[in-house]
Amino acid sequence: MHLVLATESQKAERDRVTHSAWGSPLTVEQFHQREVRLRAHPWCREGMRTWLLQADDGRVLASCESFHNDSYLRGPDGGYTAGDSFSIASVFTEESLRGHGHASRLMDLVAAELERASPRGHAAVLFSDVGAPLYRRSGYVEAPAWDWHLPAREGLSTRRVDSLLKDADVTAALERMRRPSVPFFLWPSPAQVDWHLERERIYAELLRRPRPEACGAAVGDSTALWAMMARYGELVVLMLDARSEEDAAALLETAGALAHRAGLAKVVLWEEPNTLPWVTRVPGATRVARDGALPMLRPLRPGLPAAPDVPFPRALWV
Ligand SMILES: CC(C)(COP(=O)(O)OP(=O)(O)OC[C@H]1O[C@@H](n2cnc3c(N)ncnc32)[C@H](O)[C@@H]1OP(=O)(O)O)[C@@H](O)C(=O)NCCC(=O)NCCS
């Protein structure tokens, strides 16, 4: 049993078997086309790999993907050192092969390989849809996961913000945002944010529905970025940097208005320590234990803080 990187034809084969987990409502062919298009996206071309756990006879026992993230670790002098972190996604074992420890073995081998091959390695992170126990075995520790739900509402104003952001504004929007003042954090690149928008574009085309009129908004020094999750009828806030309660309300109200106009039912915001005080006071906001996407972190080197002390904005989800 050993770890290998998938060839292009092996990736296409995995698309066809993993469709059972992530394909709906797309056909197998549409899902494969989605995957081909996402793999061709600049963020994936820069740092995405598909890993296979292969039996000695060449059979694929389990698979997953890893994506590269920039991360920053604060040193004793208070300055940050840039390093490499990796987000793991699409962990999959075919039904007939489950329960034999293949996924656990794959997770152990991938983490060991990332540790070995990344001199600047900081952490591996993932967003579990199957709870914590499976990944705890491979050294991952979970962080709390709460969401804020805001109803999409007709008649909400978009005039309370200074500008609505388009896909081409993402780089400038990220530059405006304050980075968290914590011992360790991952920071999405403009390409990673655009990867979420690429998913939005793909589903908008395949499901024949309109995209929201904007992918974010700015008011004063405050900024939000968001994307449509067409399959779930949600607008998800990818990043939020609100400098005041009024700004948070204006940005989230705008998200609610655009969600409604795009035929979506609600806006979902992942709770982070810096967003919490503002969102609690936004009218109609309710706090909900997150269903799935449980953030988990496995250090690739000593000296990292505990997972609950690491912020996980939705833009980091893969
Ligand atoms: C989750 C999955 C990858 C596990 O693969 P596997 O090779 O059977 O994993 P292992 O044998 O190493 O470990 C199995 C453990 O995972 C747990 N597990 C599997 N699916 C689970 C689920 N939906 N919810 C909670 N735990 C789950 C099993 O209960 C088992 O725990 P146990 O050993 O204590 O009984 C596989 O079930 C799968 O491909 N599922 C569909 C895709 C998916 O949900 N992937 C995870 C995305 S985060």
Structural notes for this entry:
By secondary structure, this protein is an alpha+beta fold. The chain folds into two domains: 168 residues, Aminopeptidase (3-Layer(aba) Sandwich), CATH 3.40.630.30; 144 residues, Aminopeptidase (3-Layer(aba) Sandwich), CATH 3.40.630. Helices cover 31% and strands 30% of the residues. The strands form two sheets. Strands 1, 2, 3, 4, 5, 6, 9 and 15 form an eight-stranded mixed β-sheet that branches. Strands 8-10-11-12-13-7-14 form a seven-stranded mixed β-sheet, with helices on both faces. Helix 1 packs across helix 2 and helix 2 packs antiparallel against helix 7.
The quaternary state of the protein chains shown equals single chain
- Enter the CATH topology name of the largest domain: Aminopeptidase
Q: SSE order, as H and E?
A: EHHHEEEHEHEEEHEHEEEHEHEE
CATH structural architecture of the largest domain: 3-Layer(aba) Sandwich
Radius of gyration: 20 Å
What is the helical fraction, as a range of percent?
Answer: 25-40%
Unreliable spans are none
Shape: globular
What topology does this entry show?
Elements: E1 2-5, H1 8-22, H2 28-39, H3 42-47, E2 49-54, E3 60-74, E4 80-92, H4 102-117, E5 121-128, H5 133-136, E6 141-142, E7 146-151, E8 163-165, H6 170-176, E9 184-187, H7 190-206, E10 216-219, E11 222-229, E12 234-241, H8 245-261, E13 266-270, H9 276-279, E14 286-289, E15 294-299
Parallel strand pairs: 4-5, 12-13
Antiparallel strand pairs: 1-2, 2-3, 3-4, 3-9, 5-15, 6-15, 7-13, 7-14, 8-10, 10-11, 11-12
Helix pairs in contact: 1-2, 2-7
Bound molecules: coenzyme A (COA).
Coenzyme A binds next to strand 4 and helix 4.
